[in-house]
Structure formats: C-alpha cells, structure tokens
Amino acid sequence: MSPALPIGDPAPADGALPASAAVGSGHRDFGVYLHVPFCAVRCGYCDFNTYTASELGGGASQAAYAGTALREIDLAAGVLSDPAVGLPERAVSTVFVGGGTPTLLPAADLVRLLAHVRATWGLVPGAEVTTEANPDSVTPEVLATLAAGGFTRVSFGMQSAVPHVLATLDRTHDPARLPDVVRWAREVGLDVSVDLIYGTPGESLADWRTSVESALALEPDHVSAYALVIEAGTKMAARVRRGELPMPDGDDEAAKYEVADELLTAAGLDWYEVSNFARGPEHASRHNLSYWRGHDWWGIGPGAHSHVGGVRWWNVKHPRAYAQRLESGLSPAAGREILDPGARELERVLLGVRLAEGLELAPGTGRVPDAQRSAVASLLAQGLIEFAPARAGRVVLTRRGRLLADAVVRELTA
C-alpha cells in the first residue's frame, strides 16, 4: 500500500490560502494535476495511492469519480479567486492526468474533467495536456476521443520489453502491443512518451539494453528512465525481506543508466532532467518542469499534493473519505505546510540541480557565492559538474554528476 501522508499543520476546512501565496505569482505558471486512483492490478513495486476494485470498499466508485473530482475543481476555483489572497487570474499552462491508471476511466470522463478545467481557468495557447496510460488500457477509439477532447500527449507505462522482467514487476501488459498503441496515438496526433524502469531483480544488462532499444524502435518523443526503488510496504519489499528477490544493486543501476544515456543520446533524445530525455526542448514535459522550477499547481484527487506560492498541502488518501469531504462542502486537504525561506531555497537546490539547464547559485548575479566556493571547487575536482557553467555561477551536472546528484546537493547545502 502507499505510504502514510506527511505530517504537517492542520489544513483549513475551506482550503483557504494565506496572502503570502500570492507573492511572486505573476512569474509562476499554474498547472493542474488530476489523480485517478484506480488500477486493475496492483504492481508489486508500486507505492502510489491507487486502489483495485477489491480494495475500494463501499462508498467509493470509479463510475462516480469524475463527478467528485469536478467538485474539487470548483473548490479550487473559489480558493484561488479569493480577493483576500490576491492571486492574479492565470490560465492553466499544463494539465497532467496520472494515477493509477487514468485510462481505466471512460475517455469521456477524462475529456469531461479537462473541459471543466478549461471552462474554469482557461488554457494558455498551446497548453500541454498529458494522460498516463497502460498499454493494455487503450484502444484506437479511446485515443481518438482523448485527442479530439484536447489532450496533446500520452505517456505509456512500458517499464520493460522483457517478459520475465515485467513478470517480476507484476506488469500485465504484452510488450508486443507497444508498437500498436504508439501507432494509434500517432495517428490521432498525440505526442508519445514511454516510461522505463531499470534495476529490477533478475534484469541483466542485456535485458536492459533490449528494453531501451525496443523503446527507441517506437520512435518516441520522450523517454523517462527511472531506477527501481524498493518501497516499504509493497509486495516487492516483502519478497526482498523474505529473500525471494535480491535488493537492486547501486553499481548495476549506474551501469544501466550509462547504457540508457548512451543509447538515447545517440538516437537524438537528450537529457533535460536526470531521469528524462526528450527529442528536442519542445518535447520535454512542461508539466514536470513546472514542478522542478517551483511553479504552482493544484492537485485534484485522493492523496494528491498541491503547491501554490510556498504553501504545500495534500489530500486525504482514500477515495471514500475524499468524496465524503467534498460532498459535505469541505476541502479534502488532510494537512499542509508553509515553507520558510530556508526550506524553499533547499528545495530550489534539490530540484534545480537535476536539470540540464543547471542551477543558478545566486540568481541574477552570474557568480558563485563566497559560502559555496569551496563546495563548487570540490565538485569540479570530483568531475561532478561542468567547468564553464560553474565559472558563471551555474551548476550543471556531468554524467558522473547525474549518477551522484544527491551527493552534489549535500555538498552545496552543507
């Protein structure tokens, strides 16, 4: 099951934001995340806030979910337009529908949710609108409905092209179906991203190379490649604890990242974030970039997290509790935190250092602050950051630095 929610302060029953949330908002984009918390089968490695039909219990319904989420969009509109806060009117720059498996909902429900976002705030010209999808959960008709309804992008959970690796991950799709679903998406004009996972117990380096090459054969616009993390409380963690599976090996994962970087770069997909590669800047995930750049977003759905102007909050986890709160006219937020300047700067470093554009150490100055000169010198000596950007006060990771990004952050914030 998914992890416990963070410990924070109580969230206001009406979801109201402090006036501090408006400071600097004119320079921040506004995005919407829509969480669909349903899956046909729970994968053994997954700790996301998702539920199968047998786990839902009474009072929570996939059929009623879109209507419930619309209530939160309406609540969000009221909170963000409160004159006491003073946020400007902002059209939505990006929409991302994640899960779970969003495409377990009827495509008409997903289009209905997007239409309500558009009617509530408007979309900027050329807005990016993405849905995640499992390869076995879409048809040509589903993808055509999504494209006609305003979706611009689909992200397929490929994970691996090797059957025994998929079996270890408890993935149920047939890898042979990927070329078909990608073709269907292309035919209706959708950009295509595929997600891969490396480091699965029993996956050889040859297996991983096969997966990357199979992904590239699809000619995607974007590839995400994530190292497997064994999360506490998952089925896979229990199997590791019982000795049925080995823990992922750090050196093995590093070697697989290097293989991915070599193959993806050679095929014209450049890294723009440590785990993400795009066929040119126009195909980078603008929604995820907004997270890494500290912009604003409202997360709709059970367990969804939001951030507006240094205020972060998270919703109750279970779909039943989520629906009950909204039906009672209450915010579904379970708790929140207001980030102080130190926490916001730490987060800026933690996220910004992962980007290919680099982290500006002293924004607007073009220099390295005195307090970080020794850290920058050390990182250069270790070959973790690029020399020329560092001279101008910007930290850009080398490939070795990407493998040790957390160590770079520790050194910069020590």
From TrEMBL:
Keyword set includes Cytoplasm? yes
Q: Which UniProt keywords apply?
A: 4Fe-4S, Chaperone, Cytoplasm, Heme, Iron, Iron-sulfur, Metal-binding, S-adenosyl-L-methionine
Q: Which InterPro entries does the UniProt entry name for this protein?
A: Coproporphyrinogen-III_oxidase, Elp3/MiaA/NifB-like_rSAM, HemW-like, rSAM, rSAM_sf
Please report which protein family the annotation says this sequence is part of: Belongs to the anaerobic coproporphyrinogen-III oxidase family. HemW subfamily.
Stretches that traverse the bilayer: none
Provide the protein's localization.
Cytoplasm
Protein role: Probably acts as a heme chaperone, transferring heme to an unknown acceptor. Binds one molecule of heme per monomer, possibly covalently. Binds 1 [4Fe-4S] cluster. The cluster is coordinated with 3 cysteines and an exchangeable S-adenosyl-L-methionine.
- UniProt KW Iron-sulfur keyword: yes
The record's SUPFAM superfamilies line, in alphabetical order, gives: Radical SAM enzymes (SSF102114)
Q: Which NCBIfam families match?
A: hemN_rel
Source organism (scientific name): Georgenia faecalis
- Name the UniProt record assigns to this protein: Heme chaperone HemW
Radical SAM core domain boundaries: 24-273
